């Protein structure tokens, strides 16, 4: 009797395991390229990046939805995208970033979908940059979107790792890629940035109410993410209202109004609080004035870092710098320590069209 009972229990457990549904896959669509294709990688949330990134043994991760290149300079017209990064292992990333150590700059070009592989990419490049003391990290992105949850994970990670983000002319950042912009310290945009409605893969909804309920949780996650990264929650509203068969392109004015271009307001506030604690209110006020002058007088498209540095140093005496009270916090105390948005050459942003262009679509995982 006991033997039969154990056998029955075993069969029931086996049946449950067999019936278990695979984890849902979040898609990123580009309607201009035909039918939607799955973004196949699974989340890497269980990897505890804060722990493994301090070691040399990194769990397996793949760039299965895009291509990445590493460059050690700002000038993509002259230098191109850089050297292709073929693997995300510790030693592969170290080898790719080693040439960038003398310059103190790494530009990561990424062309593809937002998924777990992308999250691992930005985390691992930043981790090695930290070890090599490479202070300037630029994400040069072209993406039609992808996993909403992974965009949030990647954006939060980038917010802690001090990334500048470019969407250059000829590139675009659509759908969940817009969330990546919120995580950057500075955002320099000349390409298209567009938003539309999120949708869930393998949805079971049969009514508007059921579909709304499915998306309610992720909409809340998006709102919380935008708030903590200094972006306007109206972006989340657009992600729930613009039909996913269309694409709402944001103008230059809207990008600034929504907190998606230029300096990140939250990071600016945090930096100023820390500076005031160390050096006092008067020092912080004068440094703010220097930065405004730097942005108005020094930043022009295509200027090399050395020219920016020279221009910044020439402005210092006007605002009482160098200041012996806090020598390490003077605006150009370290030639690689200019504000993130000044260390990267910042492009001027021409007006963007409000409608049109290629379409993308994102779905939200369960």
TrEMBL record:
Stretch forming the signal peptide: 1-19
Any idea what this protein is called?
A: Peptidase S49 domain-containing protein
Arranged from A to Z, the UniProt key words for this protein are: Signal
The record ties this protein, via Gene3D superfamilies, to: 2-enoyl-CoA Hydratase, Chain A, domain 1
């Amino acid at each position: 009797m006991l033997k039969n009972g154990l056998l029955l229990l075993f069969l029931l457990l086996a049946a449950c395991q067999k019936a278990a549904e695979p984890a849902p896959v979040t898609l990123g669509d580009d309607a201009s390229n035909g039918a939607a294709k799955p973004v196949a990688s699974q989340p890497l949330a269980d990897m505890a990046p804060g722990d493994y990134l301090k070691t040399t043994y990194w769990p397996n991760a793949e760039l299965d939805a895009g291509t990445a290149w590493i460059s050690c300079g700002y000038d993509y017209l002259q230098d191109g995208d850089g050297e292709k990064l073929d693997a995300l292992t510790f030693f592969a990333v170290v080898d790719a970033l080693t040439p960038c150590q003398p310059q103190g700059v790494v530009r990561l070009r990424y062309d593809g979908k937002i998924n777990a592989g992308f999250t691992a990419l930005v985390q691992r490049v930043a981790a090695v940059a930290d070890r090599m003391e490479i202070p300037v990290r630029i994400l040069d992105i072209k993406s039609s979107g992808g996993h909403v949850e992974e965009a949030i994970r990647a954006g939060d990670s980038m917010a802690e790792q001090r990334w500048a983000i470019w969407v250059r002319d000829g590139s675009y950042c659509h759908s969940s890629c817009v969330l990546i912009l919120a995580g950057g310290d500075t955002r320099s945009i000349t390409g298209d940035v567009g938003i539309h409605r999120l949708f869930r893969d393998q949805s079971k909804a049969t009514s508007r109410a059921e579909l709304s309920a499915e998306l309610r949780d992720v909409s809340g996650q998006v709102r919380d993410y935008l708030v903590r990264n200094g972006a306007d929650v109206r972006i989340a509203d657009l992600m729930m209202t613009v039909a996913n068969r269309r694409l709402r392109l944001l103008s230059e004015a809207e990008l600034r109004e929504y907190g998606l271009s230029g300096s990140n307001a939250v990071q600016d506030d945090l930096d100023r609080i820390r500076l005031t604690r160390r050096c006092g209110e008067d020092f912080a006020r004068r440094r703010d004035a220097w930065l405004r002058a730097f942005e108005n007088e020094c930043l022009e498209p295509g200027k090399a870092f050395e020219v920016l540095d020279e221009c910044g140093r020439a402005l210092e005496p006007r605002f009482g710098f160098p200041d012996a009270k806090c020598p390490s916090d003077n605006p150009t105390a370290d030639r690689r320590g200019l504000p993130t948005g000044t260390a990267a050459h910042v492009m001027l942003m021409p007006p963007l069209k409000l409608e049109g262009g290629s379409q993308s679509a994102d779905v939200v995982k369960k």
